[in-house]
Each structure stands twice: as C-alpha cells, then as structure tokens.
Amino acid sequence: MQKRLILGHIFSFITIAIWSVAFVSNKALLAYISPIENMILRFSIAYILLLIIYPKQILPNSVKDEFSFFILGFLGIFIYFLLENFALKYTQATNVGLYMGAIPLFTAITAHFLTKDESLNKYTIVGFLVAILGIALILLDGSKFQLRLKGDLLALLAAIIFALYSVALKLAPKGYHYIVIARKSFFYGLILMGIYFYFSGKSFNIEALSIKTVWLNIAFLGLFSSGLAFILWQQGIERIGSISASNYIYLVPLITAIAGISLLGETLTPKMLIGGVLILIGLYIAQKR
C-alpha cells in the first residue's frame, strides 16, 4: 500500500514537470501554427505511440463505458487544450499559469460533490491559500503582467474544465488497461478536433513542418506531454486520488520559471524565489491528512 502511494506521488510529480515545460514549448509553436493544428499533430503522435505500446484492441463492456471514454476525450483532450491554446494566443503564459494554479481548489470542490471518497479538509484549504500567494508572487513579478480579458477568461474556464476531467478520470470505468483508457480518450478527442478543424475552413500550414523548432516541439508535446504524461497522470490519480494528484499543480509556476530561465534566458528575481518556497510549503500543507 505504501509503495502504491509513493508511486502515485512520483507519477504525479513527473507529469506536472513535463506539463510545466510544455507551456514553453506551446508558446513557441503558436508563432508558427494555429492552436488546432498544434492539437491535431501532437495528439496524433500520442495516439500512435499508445497503439505501439499497447496495440491490443478492447471492446467496451457497455455503451455507458464507451460514453465515459468519450467524456474524457471531450473534457480533457478537446475542450481543455482548445481553451488553453487559445488562452496562450490571447494573453500571457503567466496569466494562464495563474489560473492553472487554481485547479487543485476547483478539483477539491468538484470531487467533494461528485465522489464518495474525497472530501475537503482544512489542510487543503490552508495549503491552497499559502500556495496561491506564492503563485501570485511569481506570476505578478515585474511590470509585464497585463490583464487581457478574453485570454484570461479562457484560461480560467480551462482550469475548471481540467478539474472536471480529473474527477471524470477518477470515475472512469474499471477493468480496462490504463493505456486503453488514455487511447480511447485521445481517439474521441482527435475526432472532435477533426470536426472542429473541418468547420473552421482552414488548411494545414505544411510549410511550417520544415522548420526545426516546429517539429522538435511537436515531437516533445506528442511523445512526452501528450503521450507519456497522460498515462502517468491517470496512474497517479488512481493511486492517490484526484485531489492529492492535482495538488502538484502548485509546482507548475516554479518549474515553468526554471524552464524559462534554462531555455529562454529569463532572470530569477527575489520575488520568484520567495514564491517558489511558498508554493512548496503550500503543497506540503495540502498533502497533510
């Protein structure tokens, strides 16, 4: 039991680390291709990867089970990433990160009402308040923060959708291999992306794929951020619950700051250091029971 919990925490941390770096990768890609092109390319790669890793085809036990997989694809693959990508297009990545930091609170509230084994407690609430202070110090540091209403509202909605997805994943049908669950959700997400792209009337920017920056970032997002990370996230939630797993999202601003310094040459300020410490303290408090 102890080993299972430790693995759950490790899987959740690795997932969040990958997704934090993906913010930098996503931002770079949007300079060359549209949000929906980004989504279709990365999840096509991820879906093929999952087919290679686990090619066995599994028929659903019931129509209800298959509908559950559709909901996962609709919430966590199509809607969330559509909102996140358009939010990054219209507002700063720091703004988007601020609302992503609120995901644990949204997840706790949602799970409290939709599940039987997850409930709010004082540690979760206090930990969130401490961590959100750290997030604010990092994200509001300097003079570059700009409130762009359209992008900020999209980012806030994306955070709420991801919380719903995390709870839906916790309630996913039992008896299926975890890769099958991820693969089926990717499949329905890709169908919805294809429908959206068709009715958008746009065409693929094929020329952009010849740019090294584009295909390197697409490969990272497809193989790691969309492929490996979703498997680890599902396994993390199954072992420690949606609230505990989502608490690691508090680390997103800290890891993203480190990625920005390493990959984009950004500077580390005293406010960012203090904010990082507060985030870690908040995470520790929220994990106490």
Describe this structure in words.
The protein has one domain (2-287). It has 12 helices and no strands. The chain has helices at 2-29, 35-53, 63-90, 93-100, 103-114, 122-139, 149-170, 178-200, 212-240, 242-246, 252-264, 270-287. Helix 1 (2-29) packs antiparallel against helix 9, helix 3 (63-90) runs antiparallel to helix 7 and helix 3 (63-90) packs across helix 8. 48% of the residues are buried.
What's this entry about, in short?
The chain is mostly helical and 289 residues long. The chain contains 12 helices and no strands.
Topology at a glance:
Blueprint: H1 2-29, H2 35-53, H3 63-90, H4 93-100, H5 103-114, H6 122-139, H7 149-170, H8 178-200, H9 212-240, H10 242-246, H11 252-264, H12 270-287
Helix pairs in contact: 1-9, 1-11, 2-8, 2-9, 3-7, 3-8, 4-6, 4-7, 5-7, 6-12
Q: Key terms for this structure?
A:
mainly alpha; 12 helices; 289 residues; 0% strand
Shape: globular
Determine the strand fraction and express it as a percent band. Answer: under 5%
Helix content: over 70%
Number of strands: 0
pLDDT average, as an integer?
A: 82
Q: Indicate the low-confidence ranges by residue numbers.
A: none
What's the N-to-C terminus distance? 16 Å
User: Structurally, how many domains make up the residues?
Assistant: 1
- Helix/sheet category: mainly alpha
User: Could you give a short account of the major beta sheet?
Assistant: none
**How many helical stretches?**
12
What is the CA-atom radius of gyration, in angstroms?
18 Å
Order of helices and strands: HHHHHHHHHHHH
